[in-house]
Amino acid sequence: MLRNTMYDFIVIGGGTAGLSSAVYACRANKKTLVIERESFGGQIVDAPNVENYPGIVNISGAQFASDLFDQAEKAGASFKCETVTKIVTEGSCTTVVTDIGRYTAKAVIIAAGCDHRRLGVTGEERLIGSGVSYCALCDGAFFKDKTIAVVGGGNAAFTDALYLAGIAGLVYILHRRDVFRAEQALIDRAKELNSIRIITDAVVEELIGDDELTGVTLNVKGEKQMLELDGLFVAIGQQPDNTIYAPVELDEDGYIVTDEMCRTNIKGVYAAGDCRKKVVRQLTTAAADGAIAVSAAMKDIF
Q1: 0.85 exceeded by the pTM?
Q2: Any catalytic annotation for residue 135?
Q3: Catalytic residue (one of 139, 160, 230, 289)
Q4: Which of 148, 152, 207, 298 has the most other CB atoms within 10 Å of its CB?
């Protein structure tokens, strides 16, 4: 029989938004549980260096995540490594059902994040953080005067390429089609720059390198080519996995719809971080969401 334990706050997700929520909830002297299905820390763990978080000049992503986890733990949070399968609203409380147990709280904060879409090719997983990145703003500075490529054909890919063109020596845009989804203004700006070269009908088939990325194998219009690179930025979108949180409202892309205080359409259920509909997804905004969600719950419930 599944056990059921009562908390003030249950936080689903152990990344920056979730752990920040836990810190603020515990500082409000509320009994708090953080449930994470994989490893605590979130996507930032893969970043070799973090240099854009206010007050911290430089820190590894792994150390940042570890310090934040320690802070939440010392504040009094409890942790479970379990997979959430659904949430159930029951009167003034919400029950979170996992593959192992049942946990009920007055307030639930969904901070499950979202995943960057992967290329799904040989070498990708091995080279994440060693030349392969999914965040130009986070990691672009490490490729000053280097030769790099951005994979994708949408606004994100062209925005990343234009940003990286001010840092790297040469930036390739690799797109599997000959038509782009990006706005024409972005495409035109990219084409005007000598530091950006566009290769269309180019499918990345393999990433080359042992400890560091050295290049990629491309299929360009049916012909294999080798492209030497120091870095590869994948910008083919993100994919949230929020369907299990029904009846929480989602937008057309699967992100959780909230108001500016991180409230969802379900009373007592909040969303923080990358899993919710928002414009900017950075460490600073994730931490801010965590604080805002707790503040809203304290006002609404406690």
Answers
A1: no
A2: yes
A3: 139
A4: 148
